[in-house]
Amino acid sequence: MPNKFYITTPIYYVNDSPHLGHAYTTIAADVMARFRRLAGDDVFFLTGTDEHGQKIDKAAKAAGVEPQKFTDLVSQRFQALVNFKDSENLLNISNNDFIRTTEERHKAACKVLWQKMLDSGDIYLDKYAGWYAVRDEAYYQEGELIGGKAPTGADVEWVEEESYFFKLSKYGDKLLQFYKDNPEFIIPKSRYNEVVSFVKKGLKDLSISRTTFNWGIPVPDNNKHVMYVWVDALTNYLTAVGYPNEGSESFKKYWHENTVHHLVGKDILRFHAVYWPAFLLSANLPLPAQIVAHGWWTVEGEKMSKSLGNVVSPRELVENYGLEQVRYFLLKAMPFGNDGDLSRDKLVETVNADLANNFGNLAQRTLSMIAKNNEGRIPKCTDYVDFGWEEHFANIQNEMKNFQFQNALNEIVLLGNKANEYVDKQAPWALKKEGKLEEMGNVLYNLAEVVRKIAILLQPFCPVAANKLLDQLVIPQNERSFYHLQTTGYQLKADTGLPAPSGIFPRIEIKPMNEDLKVV
Ligand code: MSP
């Protein structure tokens, strides 16, 4: 039975257009989903849009459009980036589903989850009086405010209303025990520590309904209230695998203790690592395997913000630099978990160094030497060199277990470096001149074989380019997984005829950003 792996991105608020931050999380999740599929796992990959709450209600009002219509429109901008019906799939994302919280299936799931928490005695009616930040859709305590604003810088407003509360305070010890028993529940470690110390300070009950607007899912049996948008939003992860139908095929398959991986930005860690497990405990449902928190991007050293006019759109990036290049750079540029900076110079430098000069050059030299000196056929090999690839592969698997994409890519780069050094040292062109055809054949074979391995390993990151490379090596579509990397019998076969080679990773030049494509 293949291992089950359920990976999610946060669902994105539809108050505005997608930007670099959204693209990053989605691409990182996609790389992980593709990696796990290549490793043989049964993967379910979910993304979608978060469409209720005060923030969306306000944005719809500001646009003068009914909230449902507004969310229909804005959700499309997110759908265009990923796999959704016949969308453009700008980022070539391999999600299995796309959820919208305004869908009926989701409303049904939220109602049942609410009822389960109520049945556990964890919901009561009271009055909320305190601060609320619409931008963050979060409640803040007086002591958390900095200069009259939320710690995130968002404006806060004083809210006093009747509200249902969730007995979060009841779950503090249970959560601490759970974190202790599952030290990998939150990665990186620094984030784990942050959550543990937050919970240790003591948890207050959480207001989980609102009455001052109605753009949300009504609370069962009390239509005056709509559910707090985070209760609604977090439930999406259950909805997509069939909840409340716990007997459904997909629910049974994907919702287990060790299957669910939520990828989130550091700003929404508390919701996922504290509130969400508490809701699930209350509803007697298994908890996720892991909450993986990533850092934030700045652009040319500055925080991305509308007021600075430096918000980068995914489309702008892809049109200026190419999708494969952007995907590669975003995961190579920073250790996963840290903050990172998008600088045009750095992007161009990284892409040229790794994709063009290392992998591209290696592939191009190998394939064109085979075309020129061996009639376009894979040569015979009598002396194998394997560049220690197995160790690199083992390291890649380890790094990917911890979502350390940068380190995983570094391993592929090291393998490419070794192969490039080998070409220079063996100088197959000279072997040809000296009439040492067997030696030349050996060198070209070993090179072509390491190019096959590199291409297989690069597939999650640069799916189109890596597969083009595999096409050039005439590798059948169903022989491109990690199984075919590790199992003897799938290495290149001597005498296979190859098509005329063509470049895969061109060098890119620094171009000014296309102003028209910026989201402002
Ligand atoms: N709707 C909630 C999530 C609900 S999940 C049940 C939400 N949406 S969001 O659209 O505001 O943000 C989605 C994600 O984008 C978050 O993980 C956030 O960290 C990420 N990013 C927003 N700006 C970012 C950067 N500048 N850099 C990296 N990621 C950033 O929160």
How would you describe this structure to a colleague?
By secondary structure, this protein is of the alpha/beta class. Helix content is 45%, strand content 15%. It contains 19 helices and 17 strands. Strands 1, 2, 3, 4, 8, 13 and 14 form a 7-stranded parallel beta sheet that branches. It has a 4-stranded antiparallel beta sheet with strand order 6-5-7-9, covered by helices on one side. α1 (20-38) links the parallel β2 and β3. Bound molecules: 5'-O-[(L-methionyl)-sulphamoyl]adenosine. Residues 10-13, 21-22, 24-25, 50, 233-234, 236, 264-265, 267-268, 296-297, 304 line the site of 5'-O-[(L-methionyl)-sulphamoyl]adenosine.
Catalogue the ligands: 5'-O-[(L-methionyl)-sulphamoyl]adenosine
Terminal-residue CA separation: 49 Å
Radius of gyration: 26 Å
Approximate strand percentage: 5-15%
What's the oligomerization state? single chain
Write a concise keyword list for the protein shown above.
disordered C terminus, single chain, 520 residues, 45% helix, elongated, seven-stranded parallel β-sheet, 19 helices, binds 5'-O-[(L-methionyl)-sulphamoyl]adenosine, alpha/beta
Write the layout of secondary structure elements.
Blueprint: E1 4-8, E2 12-13, H1 20-38, E3 42-50, H2 54-63, H3 67-79, E4 97-100, H4 104-119, E5 123-133, E6 138-140, E7 157-166, H5 172-181, E8 186-187, H6 189-200, E9 206-207, E10 209-210, E11 218-219, E12 222-227, H7 229-234, H8 236-239, H9 249-254, E13 260-265, H10 269-282, E14 290-294, E15 297-299, E16 302-303, H11 314-321, H12 323-332, E17 340-342, H13 344-373, H14 389-401, H15 405-426, H16 428-433, H17 437-458, H18 463-472, H19 482-486
Parallel strand pairs: 1-3, 1-13, 2-3, 3-4, 8-14, 13-14, 15-17
Antiparallel strand pairs: 5-6, 5-7, 7-9, 10-12, 11-12, 15-16
Helix pairs in contact: 2-3, 5-6, 11-12, 12-13, 13-15, 13-17, 14-15, 15-17, 17-18
The structure holds 5'-O-[(L-methionyl)-sulphamoyl]adenosine.
Residues 10-13, 21-22, 24-25, 50, 233-234, 236, 264-265, 267-268, 296-297, 304 line the site of 5'-O-[(L-methionyl)-sulphamoyl]adenosine (MSP).
